[in-house]
Amino acid sequence: MRAILFLLMMCLIPFNSYAEKGGRWASSSEDGNPRSKKKTKPVAVEEVDTSGPVMSLPSDMVVSATTAAGAVVFYTANSRDAVDGAVTTQCDYASGSVFSLGQTQVNCWAEDASQNITSSSFLISVIDDVAPIITLPAPIEQDSSDGLPVSVTYSVQVFDQVDSNVALVCLPSSGSSFPVGTTMVECEASDDARNTSTATLSVMIADTTPPAPPPPEEPPVNMAPVVNFFMPAVNTVVQTGDGLAVEINASDADGFIEYCNLYKNGNLIRRESYAPYQWNSNMDQSLAGLVEGSFSLVAECFDDLGLNATAELAIVVEAAPVAIVANVLLDWVTPTTREDGTYLAVSEIDAYEIYYYLADQIDTGTSSSIAAQDGLGGLVTSYEIQALASGNYYFSIATIDTNGSVSRFADPINLVLP
Ligand SMILES: [Ca+2]
Ligand SMILES: [Ca+2]
Ligand SMILES: [Ca+2]
Asked: In this predicted structure, what is the pLDDT of residue 8?
């Protein structure tokens, strides 16, 4: 029965090769248990292929992303069939394609010539495990011309293969004030996968403050002149009419005396430019013929730098004591006629006027009125002037009648009292 069927099939499909007929064709012969029904001569029969290919896939893979899109991943997938040998393996994600970030299941299958299909899968995980790359500028060097902090700006770049917007923090930040010295700027960058990198930038601020100029040299302190009165002595008392001689000592320890002024009661007497510094009544009228009272003398001297010093002296002028030299007795004869020659009775004479004066002071002499008769009715013909100082005097006399008429003064008589 089996042999007959075999022949029929041969007749029905005369042009098909055996290899092209497929596994089902072989399996279709399993029609129960023919061998038990009829004992036949053994015939060579091909084994029917019912096993799928054996597939060789990679283990689950973890791959670093190379771009934001993920990574190109290559893998090898092989299948071998026990009957057919190597067979094609197909996968829904081909090797060498771009795998997105995250986990992708790759499904693969293979089919042998007998349409036995084997399928399997593996995982490809694309992850970002690479930290951002921080690119620093060259170490920064700046000058501080005054020693104070300097504002420094800098630019730090960051790159990540996956993230385009990586968080970058640098402290102190760009634009901050950096003190003199070296400051390390610490930069830290993190991507979305929390991969972190750090970098350090050196900022050096040099103090270029110019050295302070030396303090200006203090000019030496000018010493004031020294001034004092050499003469007259302190507490000198002079007398009216006297003249005064003045001399001052003036010196300057670190220079010289330019000139000295002498003042009397604040009024300049005269400037003296050369030592000895002297004033006297011959050269200076205000020091001659002093009048009773007091006055101040101030000497003011200037040194070569215009610095001055003064000395003051009080002068007392006392009234000069009058020297009593003599008493002068004047005698006269009682007149008997008037100036016109007419008779003048004694009873018509009321008094006499005596006038005497120093030779150069005719207008400021002394006048004395003398009664013509004394208390007893006697005629008065003399008068004593007492305590006259020395001097060149003139004496004269006039007659006053009872009508009050005054005669011409007699020619004065001169008398020099030594
Ligand atoms: Ca197979
Ligand atoms: Ca990264
Ligand atoms: Ca001086």
From this structure: 37
pLDDT tens digits, 234-282 = 988 899 988 999 999 999 999 999 999 999 999 999 999 999 999 999 9
Identity at 88, one-letter amino acid code: T
Nearest ligand (C-alpha, residue 112): 1
Looking at the DSSP bridge assignments, the partners of residue 393 are: 358, 415
> What domains can be seen in the chain, in order of their start residue?
2-37 (no CATH), 54-127 (2.60.40.10), 133-207 (2.60.40.60), 226-318 (2.60.40.10), 326-417 (2.60.40.10)
Q: What separation in Å is there between the alpha carbon of 98 and the centre of ligand 2? A: 17
Whether the Cβ atoms of residue 285 and residue 270 lie closer than 8 Å to each other: no
**Ligand 1 centroid from CA 116, angstroms:** 6
Rounded to the nearest whole angstrom, what is the distance from the C-alpha of residue 317 to the centroid of ligand 2?
A: 116
Tokens 């009508």 — which residue? 403
Ligand 2 centre distance from Cα of residue 197 (Å): 10
For 262-273, b/e burial (b = at least 16 CB within 10 A) is bbbeeeebeebe
End-to-end CA distance of the chain: 212
Ligand nearest to the CA of 192: 2
Q: Are strands 61-64 and 117-127 parallel, antiparallel or unpaired?
A: parallel
Ligand 2 centre from 130 Cα, in Å? 4
Q: How far is the CA of 260 from the centre of ligand 3 (A)?
A: 14
Instruction: Kindly state the DSSP code that residue 362 receives in the 8-state scheme.
Output: G
Q: What is the pLDDT of residues 151-210, one digit of tens each?
A: 999 999 999 999 988 999 999 999 999 999 999 999 999 999 999 999 999 999 999 988
pLDDT of residue 325: 76
Q: Give residue 258 CA to ligand 3 midpoint distance, Å.
A: 10
From the CA of 227, which ligand is nearest? 3
pLDDT at position 110 is 97
Distance 53 CA to ligand 3 centre (A): 126
Instruction: Locate 44 and state its tokens.
Output: 């060579």
Question: Contact, 240 vs 318, CB < 8 A?
Answer: yes
Residue ranges in the chain modelled with pLDDT below 70: 1-46, 322-324
How many A from CA of 124 to the centre of ligand 2? 18
Place of tokens 């009228």: 285
Spacing, Cα 244 to ligand 3 middle (Å): 30
Instruction: Please tell me the predicted confidence (pLDDT) of residue 17.
Output: 39
> Could you tell me the distance, in angstroms and rounded to a whole number, from the CA of residue 50 to the centre of ligand 1?
6
d(CA 121, CA 38): 48
